[in-house]
Amino acid sequence: MKSLRALLLAAVVASPAFGAVQMPATSYLEGLSWLGHASFRWSRAGKTVYLDPWKLSSEPHDADLVLIGHPHFDHLDPADIAKVSGPKTEVVTVAECAAKLKEAGFSGAVRVVKPGDRVEVKGISVEVVPAYNTDKDFHLKERGWAGFIVELDGVRLYHAGDTDFIPEMKELKTDVALLPVSGTYVMTAEQAAEAAKAINPKVAVPMHYGSIIGTAADAERFRELCGSLIVEILEKQ
Ligand SMILES: [Zn+2]
Questions:
Q1: 86, HSE (Cβ side, Cα atoms, 13 Å)
Q2: pLDDT tens-digit readout, 41-84
Q3: For 3-46, what is each residue's pLDDT tens digit?
Q4: 33 C-alpha vs ligand 1 centroid, how far in Å?
Q5: 49, 124, 142, 171: least CB-packed within 10 angstroms?
Q6: Which one, of 127, 207, 119, 201, lies nearest residue 162 by Cα?
Q7: What is the spatial distance between Cα 138 and Cα 155, in angstroms, rounded to a whole number?
Q8: What ranges do the domains of the chain cover?
Q9: Which pTM value belongs to this model?
Q10: CATH code for 4-10+22-131+142-225?
Q11: C-alpha of residue 69 to centroid of ligand 1, in Å
Q12: How many CA atoms lie within 13 A of 16 on its CB side?
């Protein structure tokens, strides 16, 4: 059932005051499932992409593409990557993660990328973007860890990875922005709201809360602080 909120959002985005927007905001989220923390499945136009799959309760083996931005255990889990991998799967990740996957005995296809790269994998375009801390040192810029912009079905989706609000975000073009909001290792809800306003996506989605760090209250606060920007808080699948 479509919620009243979803219908209202659709009406707001379709209104002439917002210019020539063809799609209601919620339709950009079609096929997107939040699997908890920073873990997502996005299936659209016959392609299935996983981002940082972690703590999965099933073994679907249905990924075309798996994107992993950095090697921390809550983002790179070889057992979870194996659960979504099948013969057709390609993993795209940074060198450090590729080495850890090899160490763990992962035998699937892995392509190594770095921030700034643009690659086409199985017909899916992927932009690799920087992700790093500015006021703490859990994710140093020089490690070369990543976020990703993936495009499926003409929709661009940005998974920020573990990051603070960094200047590079101002140049990003995306329809959907998945942004960490927990604070401590990443942006706080307040900083994430500033980042969201700078990125100005059609829809922003809070992530990186509800597992190790951060709570639903952070996601709610993020939504409030985003003001007129559309924010959807996803139910964990
Ligand atoms: Zn991390």
A1: 10
A2: 999 999 999 999 999 999 999 999 999 999 999 999 999 999 99
A3: 555 555 554 455 444 545 567 888 999 999 999 999 999 999 99
A4: 21
A5: 142
A6: 207
A7: 31
A8: 4-10+22-131+142-225
A9: 0.89
A10: 3.60.15.10
A11: 9
A12: 0
